[in-house]
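ok, trying the design again with the full structure, not the truncated one.
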């Protein structure tokens, strides 16, 4: 392979001690949770079910994350955090019992593109459990920063995907084990200053973000 075509790849797996039907139900109800402080909003903008009982859904997620000090020079005005617009496409096959999600950022693409694919399916050895297989590709074409950006993206993804999995676990316990103690919150990502405290500001941001995306036709191709 030519060096310039190489991208950073990360593969992982997560085991949920809940049956597939419950995991899928919890998947659509997992926000908010103690681990989702970096998720500002999530909106379904397309959903349909096909004749063969396949549920197709598209969601727009807005996320924020702190960036390292070396990254401040790349972003305008020395911002210490970035807002990412993420498109999530999901295919839920009710007959085969698989949920496949594909997520990709639609802004900040001049810096990097992060593609994630997750497949949820029943554990072949135990139908009361569900396995989620995850694969992410990080690609950057920014001259002089390719390696460092791709490495940073994978490192950040490892942390975020663990928080996402723990968040879904928390939701599943809350939904389906209501009389049992909720699992303790561990390794929570530090909140940004003022995050989740000024709800008016968050709502204003979400509405302005959707208005911007609608006016710029950014969602037309997704």
């Amino acid at each position: 392979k030519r060096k310039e075509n190489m991208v950073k790849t990360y593969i992982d797996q997560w085991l949920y001690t809940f049956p597939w039907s419950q995991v899928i139900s919890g998947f659509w109800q997992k926000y908010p949770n103690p681990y989702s402080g970096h998720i500002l909003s999530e909106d379904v903008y397309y959903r349909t079910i096909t004749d063969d009982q396949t549920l197709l859904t598209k969601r727009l997620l807005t996320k924020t994350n702190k960036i390292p000090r070396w990254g401040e020079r790349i972003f305008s005005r020395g911002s210490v955090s970035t807002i990412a617009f993420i498109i999530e496409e999901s295919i839920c096959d009710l007959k085969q019992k698989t949920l496949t999600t594909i997520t990709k950022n639609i802004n900040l693409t001049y810096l990097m593109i992060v593609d994630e694919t997750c497949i949820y399916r029943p554990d072949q050895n135990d139908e009361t459990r569900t396995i989620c297989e995850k694969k992410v590709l990080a690609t950057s074409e920014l001259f002089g920063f390719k390696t460092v950006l791709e490495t940073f993206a994978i490192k950040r993804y490892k942390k975020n995907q663990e928080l996402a999995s723990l968040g879904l676990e928390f939701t599943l316990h809350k939904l389906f084990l209501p009389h049992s103690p909720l699992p303790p919150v561990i390794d929570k990502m530090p909140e940004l200053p003022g995050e989740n405290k000024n709800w008016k500001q968050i709502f204003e941001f979400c509405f302005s973000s959707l208005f911007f995306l609608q006016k710029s036709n950014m969602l037309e191709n997704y």
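Keeping the full-length input from now on. The longest strand covers residues 126-139.
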